[in-house]
């Protein structure tokens, strides 16, 4: 926006100069059109450079009301802490160091590329203010959609304001305590499938070497397939799959160096649609196949539920809630049935449902598989932690009347629950650009 304003100002100055020149009838050393163009670019460059100098040098160091907040001061010229963050051994290394340096500061200020100010939310109280109390005073940066929007669609992650509130209400049922309790048998079943899958690779010493990310991705995509789509994908058991989501995601997430470069350039210049190289065409085909499979699931489920509703009405058994009478088991069924409770202009379209499902499929399986991989790494490198978790689970199972632990018994596994929280804290599987305030919130 600032560049547009500077361009308009330069244009106005050129028009004013041209009018002044005409009134004085001055002779020019070059044609008038060339003179006007050269003056426009000169005015634009001079004013844009001055504006950037103010934003990059003057404002963050001498004007910003945030400049007195605690934070690192050993900044690189025009890069702030950006160089350190890019070369750190992990994405959170510097954040952890700053949090330990200023443990009681609600916010820690640091500069990043272009000396842009960033606030690190550092205390539980500050997190509550930003993520709950004033959550709608912030918006997601535009670059986030350009980074991942092609893959996960315009679902819940990219909605804002009232639209976000509406869609949260629709989707909240999937994450209620009762829904999680109904999903527990699915989790047990897929855990057994993963165990069986790993046992197939055991050697004579009962040891197994496996690619953790690959195995965990197969399990998590199978879990997400049942809980989100209501479809058994069979990645852990079947070799011939009707819908191979995992193959498509592997193509999207594991790109060649040229494909990664195209993705980076596409953030700033939209080259994806017209660049005719295989590194780009393969990405487009995989993305289109994902959307085709999800759209097919949506159409089939809509037709299935509408047919059930017609049969129920014909039999005089229509009732509120799920057509199956159990509140629905997967997200797709819940969304289709929930459409009946909204006005025509507010109900979810099939395109809306496809976008939501793409979000849960991509984010749900990949992040969970990443967290499980880090958890396995910690267990393998810290046998003491592994022994404590095994002892706690064995103690609960020894007193359980169930063949498999129920939700209440799982919640009693305090050491395991804290271990999972610590894995998510130290090895967060989901990183995103920080949100921008839509208005200055009072925190």
UniProtKB/TrEMBL annotation:
PANTHER family reported for this sequence: CYTOCHROME P450 (PTHR24305), CYTOCHROME P450 12A4, MITOCHONDRIAL-RELATED (PTHR24305:SF166)
Protein name (database record): Cytochrome P450
Keyword GTP-binding: no
GO molecular function terms listed in the Swiss-Prot or TrEMBL record: heme binding; iron ion binding; monooxygenase activity; oxidoreductase activity, acting on paired donors, with incorporation or reduction of molecular oxygen
Native source organism of the sequence: Lasiosphaeria miniovina
Coiled coil start-end: none
Keywords, alphabetical: Heme, Iron, Metal-binding
A family per Pfam: p450
Keyword Membrane: no
UniProt-annotated stretches for the region Disordered: 307-329
Gene3D superfamilies xrefs: Cytochrome P450
């Amino acid at each position: 926006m600032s560049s547009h304003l500077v361009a308009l100002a330069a244009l106005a100055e050129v028009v004013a100069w041209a009018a002044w020149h005409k009134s004085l009838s001055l002779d020019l050393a070059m044609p008038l059109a060339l003179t006007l163009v050269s003056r426009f670019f000169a005015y634009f460059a001079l004013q844009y450079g001055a504006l950037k100098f103010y934003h990059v040098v003057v404002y963050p160091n001498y004007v910003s009301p945030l400049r007195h907040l605690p934070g690192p001061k050993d900044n690189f010229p025009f890069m702030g802490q950006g160089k350190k963050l890019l070369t750190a051994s992990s994405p959170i290394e510097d954040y952890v160091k700053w949090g330990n340096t200023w443990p009681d500061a609600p916010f820690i200020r640091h500069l990043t590329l272009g000396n842009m100010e960033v606030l690190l939310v550092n205390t539980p109280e500050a997190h509550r203010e930003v993520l709950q109390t004033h959550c709608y005073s912030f918006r997601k940066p535009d670059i986030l959609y350009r980074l991942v929007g092609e893959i996960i669609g315009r679902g819940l992650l990219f909605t804002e304001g009232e639209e976000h509130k509406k869609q949260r209400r629709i989707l909240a049922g999937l994450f209620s305590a009762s829904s999680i309790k109904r999903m527990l048998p699915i989790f047990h079943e897929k855990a057994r499938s993963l165990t069986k899958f790993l046992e197939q690779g055991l050697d004579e010493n009962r040891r197994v070497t496996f690619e953790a990310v690959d195995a965990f991705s197969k399990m998590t995509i199978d879990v997400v397939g049942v809980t989100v789509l209501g479809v058994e994908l069979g990645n852990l058991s079947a070799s011939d799959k009707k819908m191979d989501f995992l193959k498509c995601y592997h193509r999207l997430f594991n790109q060649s160096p040229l494909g990664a470069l195209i993705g980076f350039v596409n953030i700033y210049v939209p080259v994806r649609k017209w660049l005719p190289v295989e590194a780009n065409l393969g990405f487009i085909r995989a993305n289109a196949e994902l959307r085709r499979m999800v759209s097919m699931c949506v159409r089939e489920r809509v037709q299935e539920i509408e047919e059930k509703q017609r049969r129920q009405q014909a039999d005089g058994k229509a009732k509120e809630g799920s057509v199956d009478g159990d509140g629905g088991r997967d997200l797709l069924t819940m969304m289709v049935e929930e459409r009946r409770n909204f006005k025509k202009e507010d109900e979810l379209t099939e395109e809306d449902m496809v976008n939501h499902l793409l979000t849960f499929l991509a984010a749900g399986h990949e992040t969970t598989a990443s967290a499980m991989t880090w958890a396995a790494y910690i267990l393998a490198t810290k046998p003491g932690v592994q022994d404590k978790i095994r002892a706690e689970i064995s103690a609960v199972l020894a007193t359980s009347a169930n063949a498999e632990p129920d939700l209440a018994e799982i919640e009693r596994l305090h050491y395991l629950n804290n271990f999972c929280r610590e894995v998510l804290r130290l090895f967060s599987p989901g990183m995103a650009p920080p949100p921008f305030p839509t208005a200055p919130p009072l925190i």
